[in-house]
Write a structure and sequence with these properties.
Elements lengths: L10 E6 L2 E6 L2 H32 L7 H26 L5 H8 L4 H33 L14
Antiparallel strand pairs: 1-2
Helix pairs in contact: 1-2, 2-3, 2-4
Length: 155
């Protein structure tokens, strides 16, 4: 039996302007995306802390100004933007491409997050298609449909 390990790793191509970047469905890519997911959880904790301050202020135990809320919101957006920009730099393996992409989106962090989600979905679909093709190749190469059932020797 020969197992061929020369199959290409599942990947997608991402075009930015005239350049095409290859993103592979591998450990590096998953680790980079996991960093952003971890950042979302950190931000959720920060939002919980703000919510508690607001509840305390409503109960008369503290004070939260409109400036505090605005500063907090700007801080969260800035941190997320910086995280996404550095993610795209690492993901596409080119320094400054994340910033260029953010500027091309007219400074929209939300659109940058949407692009990341699109990349994640495309990689997931590519991996699933790769696994299906691999399973079909094995079925074609080693068919079991013609095998006869074994007779139970113990009766």
């Amino acid at each position: 039996m020969l197992i061929d390990l020369n199959n290409e790793t599942p990947h997608i191509g991402v075009r930015i302007n005239d350049k095409v970047y290859q993103i592979y469905a591998n450990d590096k890519t998953e680790a980079l995306i996991d960093k952003v997911v971890g950042h979302y959880f950190e931000q959720a904790d920060q939002l919980d802390a703000l919510r508690k301050k607001l509840e305390d202020a409503a109960n008369g135990d503290g004070k939260v100004s409109e400036k505090d809320i605005t500063d907090f919101s700007n801080k969260i957006i800035k941190e997320l933007r910086e995280k996404l920009i550095s993610l795209f730099d690492e993901l596409l393996d080119e320094k400054g491409v994340g910033k260029k992409l953010w500027e091309a989106k007219h400074g929209s962090t939300e659109l940058l997050m949407s692009d990341l989600q699109t990349i994640q979905d495309a990689l997931r679909n590519e991996k699933n298609g790769y696994e299906k093709r691999r399973q079909q190749m094995l079925k074609d190469k080693y068919p079991v449909r013609n095998l006869k059932r074994r007779q139970n020797a113990r009766k």
